Amino acid sequence: MNEKYNVYLVSDSTGETLDRIFLSLKSQFANFEYEKKEYAFVRTEQQIDKIINECNNVENSLILYTIVETKLAKYISRQSEASKVPCFGILGNLILSFSKLLNQKAIHKPSAQHVLDDDYYRRIEAIQFTMAHDDGKKIDDLNNADVILLGVSRTSKTPTSIYLANRGYRTINIPLIPNQNIPKDLINNFKSCIIGLVADPERLADIRRNRVAIMNDHNIKDYTDLQFIKKEIEDSKNLFKKNNWPIIDVTRKSVEETAASILKIIEIKKNK
């Protein structure tokens, strides 16, 4: 049995950046057993002392931190070394390297990435727009969308839309329903990036069966019928090909991977 580690994620801000980095890191190790503790807005030596003390009282503890204030970053490194607790600064060397490259001093200001600038308000507006246009709602202003996602039920349209909105893209997602026409304005929409999402029918059938079990609604046989789903997917692919809309198969993709493919398509469209 592998040793279990106690991982302490210490940040002087929200901890979002550090958490994402840790997710990427741990995904590279198949047999990494751990328990995670997160400490956000750590900005005093007293807070660090408390964390180090806790690390001393548990086995196999280690610290990952994102602290941009130089004095505090040195303090956590020094105290962890004195206590023989493995400690890794995530941003320190990168900030120093950038400082040398740009030939300017870093401001070392916690939460600097959360400044309320134009980009921040653009993301908030995109999130509000996307939530208001989820699942085919308010399709009268399709031309105001940056991205329009089409797909049959359970092809990850909503979570992908929300992810894109958090990146600042106003996103509309429209479900494809059998025997129901798509909005006419889609055909002549040359402003938005329209993308079709598809998935393996057998995988979709499994997902839909789980959905039906949770909803406890067994009166929608076609919804989970494999042959019906195969026709849905085939019809959706024909629609996308007919209109020259890019197609993304989301079967084995995470939301992040699907979004990355969409962003690549947006970039190609911009450069045309």
Written description of the protein model:
The structure is a single chain. By secondary structure, the chain is an alpha/beta fold. It has 2 domains: 4-114, Rossmann fold (3-Layer(aba) Sandwich), CATH 3.40.50.2300; 118-270, Rossmann fold (3-Layer(aba) Sandwich). The chain contains 10 helices and 8 strands. The strands form 2 sheets. The protein has a 4-stranded parallel beta sheet, with helices on both faces. A 4-stranded parallel beta sheet has the order 6-5-7-8, with helices on both faces. The longest helix has 17 residues, at 226-242.
Overall number of domains: 2
- Helix coverage percent of residues? 40-55%
Strand content: 15-25%
Largest sheet strand order: 2-1-3-4
Mean pLDDT: 91
Class derived from helix and strand content: alpha/beta
- Using only C-alpha atoms, the radius of gyration works out to 24 Å
Largest sheet: 4 strands, parallel
The SSE string, one letter per element, is EHEHEHEHHEHEEHHHEH
Give the end-to-end Cα distance, rounded to a whole number of Å. 55 Å
Low-confidence stretches: none
Named at the architecture level, the CATH assignment of the largest domain is 3-Layer(aba) Sandwich
The top level CATH class name of the largest domain: Alpha Beta
Question: Would you tell me which CATH topology of the largest domain applies?
Answer: Rossmann fold
